[in-house]
Each structure stands twice: as structure tokens, then as C-alpha cells.
Input
Amino acid sequence: MTIQTTEDLRQSPERTVWHGAWVWVNDVEADRNAYACFRRSFTLVASGHLDLAITADSQYWLYLDGQCIGHGPARAPLDYYLYDEHAIALEAGAHSLAVLVHHVGEQNACMMLGRPGLLVEATVTSDDAVQRLSTGDGWRCTPATAWRKELPCMMSHFGFWEDCDCTQLPAGWTQPAFDDHAWSAPVVVGTPPCTPWTRLLPRDIALPVFTAIAAQQVVAAGVWDEGKTDTAIPSEQVAARRRTRAQAPASLPYSCTLASAGAYLTIDFGHTISGYVEIDFARHPARMRLELSYDELLTPDGAVNPERSYAHTTDRYRLPGGAYRLRTTHPRGFRYVTLDLHGAGEVSITRVSAIDETYPFARQPTFTTQDDQLMSFIAKGALTVRACTTDAFTDCPSRERVQWMEDMYMHSRVALYTFGESRMLRHALFQAAQNALPDGRINGFFPSERINCAFASSSLAWLHLLVDYWLHTGNEDIHRLFPTAKRLLAMLAGVCDDEGLITHWPIGQFWDWAPTPDSGCLLLTNAAYLWALTRLAEQPVFAEVLGELPVRLPALRWAMHERFWDKEQQLYRDAAGPDAPCVYSQQANSLAVLAGICPEMGRVTLLERLIDPACLGPVSIGEATLASSKINPEQIVPAGTLWFAHFLVQALFEADLDDAALAQMRALWGAYAHLATFPETRIQHGNTGHCHGWASGPAYLLPAYVLGVQPMGPGWEAVRVAPHPGNLPAAQGVFQTPRGELSVSWTHTGHQLDVRIDAPEGIRIIR
Output
């Protein structure tokens, strides 16, 4: 469901002239879990150059002369659909373009319901001769029936597991020499631009990069017998198997003889990967069945449990026999992969590797110190966000792979500071506006027709990110987002009482996996609202969006203090109202400090109590909510995730409690030194993951607060340099700003702080 507006929400100029047509293997307006293969052969008498634009509904894999060169398109609403562009030099001779297309056709949280289709615009220039290779005449196609079509969803947030009989795939179909005369001509289903893809825009973010990752080690091998067999779902079958782990360690190359029992092998790639698995068989029996199961942790048998979460994380293949290379089709998230083999005969596996598919981030030296632990936090935060970013900022690679707004808040700040990257933030801000609800709310995830997760946090995080985008880029295209911002602020006013406090929300007010209330008049929601208004009011560019709101901020701040402050407990309550639960949390009280609700003279006392272990209740396990937990009102609810822990540490820095802030960072993030990435929740359970981008707070906090560098004007026009050194002796960082390179360093000896700043012309330094 998208709101139809007259403002221009295009991320880039719309392309309206196409020589190619939207095509499919048949003329259907809807289908579900459908695959199709397309080919176009051509010959060059001399070397030349290929220019190609491509998109598909829902996903494509593009091959040139047998080599996969692209996967897309980037997720987008149907009325702002994206295409990808490739420019490739070619030698003389026979060539082929081949495209595998998968149409999901099921409502989910990653894409909208369109119709099956492929669109390619391609020309080859050679010796001043031009060949047009766009979809239409000269293309051949066939339904890809090797993939089982009638499957339930892998999970509610995206499509299906892969169930492929590789013996039914046309051998060599992506190669130039393949004979496609038995295939059909594709059916034209539309001439662009047309419904449902009413606008076609070039991808405004970088294409993904593919990196080969070698298996780090074989962690387990053994045999298995079937357990539960009354299910057709591969992951349920795999999870029920009775495994006997071999005593002797296994390694690659790996060989075994399959008989009545199946064999298994578990590979560790060292850290969480978002991508594909590639396996080279020197030999294997014909029609051997292979299941690949993915996860970030193992069972005692050294295998993956693909039913640990609510996603069915097993793909199934039938293999043709002999020497063979299998490359999985759909990107998955995993650190460990378990291979379950069954058939009859000899198996020899020479290589197992992963193909990492991620956004091409490049680390920037924005924070350097001699403290190894803090530097590990930066590196681990960067790795975590990188693994969670492909065609969008996603929550995690392993389970949902969804562009959640709450996760985007943290991802964006890490990307801005650690990678110097703002394009993905711009991309996401526009997509959120394109997918805004008719009443003005920002959807919880996008693009999607599903609106059951349009939380209060989603809308308010979008306002904060609007400010971040302006400060880091100063791009004037922010004005095109103002109508969305105005509608959102009007919607927020509609859920406020006479004092200007938000008293209700059409759906939940999710903020953290912790036992805190999610309905009614909440301090978390109101503090985030006030904080967003305050940040917007500090930038003159947003004056037309805010109207008269800035003059009401002091009264609103005081009203929130009066509504939520508990004089007896000397804490802010999470919820107000006669029926509100009696809850006091680190979450709400941290935001009360950051939003300026807590008077300055009381901040230190409040924060010191918030981090006193004697005052804290137990950390929630996994995805705990108020409904499922008993709350002791005498104890403060601690942050349930590192996502919310970063707000606590930020509040400590803002109150100049530098030593306490660094101590909290070391304790909270240091607890996961055994993990390669940062996890979703502080205490894991069956549905949480070990790689979640919203947990990467130090990669933002260290340069922004410890080094102390924060943009305060558009495009780094003004920069505040206010270090919070704590007990660190020195730190430095280099920032690539729109105005040039900014270098900041400081040394800290005793009570003396010496700061050195090298700033380009056009940057005003605020101390």
C-alpha cells in the first residue's frame, strides 16, 4: 500500500525510452515461485562494447558467456522500480546473454506483488556497427521446471527455499554454444513504462560485489538416520535426523561412501556471510540428494539446526552424478553450512567455498587509538554492518533479510562514519517515503504492501535520519522529502493530547527486545519525538516543515518531565496513565536525557543510578516483551539489545561521564569477544542471530564522541570537535567530507587535552 502523491520521490531521473519489451515465458498476470530461463546469442566479427540495462520481477541472475556477472534488481516499490546497468568490453566471436529469473509472487516484507517479467535493453557496438539485443525478437526462453514450484514460504518475510533437481537443468544453457532452438520465443507482457512498473529508475546505489570466501575449517562430519519423515519440508526433516558424529577430525578434500545411512559435513566460514555456497564434486552418485542447511551456531552433533528460528533454512538439490560444480541460486546468511548427503556410491568433495554478496563499502580511518579492544569494536561493527547490507540496509543476513527502519538508524550512522557512505541512506530515505502509509506513517519495512509493523519507532527514526542525511551531505534533494515529513508530523499531531504528548499509536510502539510497554502514552515514543523535533529545529532548512512547532518545544519538554517523572522513585516511568504498568527502564531514562527532558542538573545522578548493577533487573532473553515477562518495579529494566545499549552510552557521553561511558561500552560489547560479529539480542534464544547491524554502535560512538567529531551544519559546513577521552591517551581520525578531508587528533595527559584539527576551507569548527 503506497500513498499516491504529486511530489517527485524519484531517487534518480526516470527512463522512459526503451527498445526492449517486458517479456515472460507465457502471458500470465500472476504466478507464484516461478522460474524461467532466457537467452540471447550474438556474434561479433571484431571486438566491441556491450551496454546493457536489466531488471526483472522479482529477481534475476545475469550471465555473459557462462559467467554470472550480476544479480538484481535492488528491491524497490513497483511505481519506482529499479534497473541495473552494465558496460562490458567484448572480444570478437560467439557470445550469449543468459538470464535466470525468479518471480516470488507472494506478499512479503522485501518486495511488492507485481507480475512475472524480464526487461533487457542491450546494444553491442563493434567497428561502428550496432546490434540491438533488447528483449523481444531474437530471444529464446523456457520455464525452469527444475525448481519445485509448489512450496510453502521459507518464512513470512521473504520467499521460498530452493528445491532444485539439477538433473533437469539444461546442461550448459548459459554458454554460447548451447542449442536453444527447442526453446520458445518469449511473450511480450508490456511495453515500458507500463503497469505495474509505472516508473523505471536506474539503481542509485552501487552494484553488489562478489567475493570468494574459502572454508575456514570442517568442524564436524559423520552419518545420520532419518528421524521425522511425515513432513515434506526439508528443514524439518533435517532437524529431526539422528546424527552420529565421527571421532576422527575431517577436512577438505572430503570423501565418503554412501550406503543405507546418509553422511554429513559441516563447514565453518569464520564469520557470518551473506551470499552463496559453491561446492566442487570430483565424483558423486547419479541423483544423489543434497541438503544445505545454514545458521550461525551449531548443535552438539556439530550440525546446523535449520529449524532453530521460524525460518526454514534448508535448500535441497538432486545432483546429476560424476564431476559437478553446484552453486546455490539464492543468497543466504550463514557462518556454518551443513551438507547432508544421501544416495549410494562414492562421494569426493574437493572444495567448498562461499561467494559473499555485499555492498562495496570501504573502511575509512575515522577512529584510531592504541586500545586494541576499542579497535576491535570498530572492526567488528564494520563487519557486522557490511554483512547486513546488500541492496538495502537489512536487519540480518541469516533470518529475515528485511530493510527495517529501526535497524537502518544504526546502519546509517555506522555507514556514514566508518565507511563515509551516504548513498545507501539517501536510497532508504526515499524508499521509505515512497512506501509511506496513506495516513503519513513510515512503514516498519519496505518495499512491501504489509503494514502490520508500522511502529512508532519506524516513523520517528525516519525523522532522525532525515537530519543525519542533511548534516552529512547538505544535498538539496532533501526538499523532495519535505511533503512526506509534513504529512508525518500532521499524523503525529493527530495522536497527541492537548499538551502535545503522543498518547496512542495505530499499531505497536516497538523500541527494544525487553520487557517494556508498547502501547499507550510512552516516554520512549515521546522522548524520541521531542528529540527529533529538537534536531530538526536546529537546522534552518526544516523551518517550512516544522511551522510553529519549535516555539512549543520548551513547554512540550516540561510536560513530558511532569507526566513521566516519579518523585518517589527518582526515575522516569516508561508509561503514563491510570492503567499504565509500573516499569522503569534504561531505555526510557536514557532517551529522557538525550531528548533534554531530564534537567541538566539531574542527569548525572539519574545516569549513575541507571548503570548501578544493584539497581538493575535481569537482562531479557531473546525477544522478550512486557506481555511475556514479570516486571519487578523495584528494579530497572536493562537494555535487551546492543541497539538500545548504544543510546545509554551516548547519554553517558552527553553528560560528560566519559569513564562510565567507556566502561559500559567495554562491558556491553566486550561480552561478545567470542563472536565474529555483534548479535541481535544481549542474551540469545532460538529466534535471534549472531550478526545484526543494529548492534554496531561503537563504530559510530567512538568517532562521534570519543574522538568527538560531529557535523553540525549541512554537508559538514560546521563541525563540533568535542572529545570525550576518558582514560585514553590519544586518538585520531580522518573524515572525507563534501568539502574535503578533515583530520582530527588529540593527546590526553593528566588534565591536559591537546587537540589538533586540519580542516579544509569552508568548514567552521565549533569547540
Summary: Confidence is low (pLDDT under 50) at residues 1-5. The chain has 14 helices and 33 strands. The CA atoms of residues 409 and 497 lie 27 Å apart.
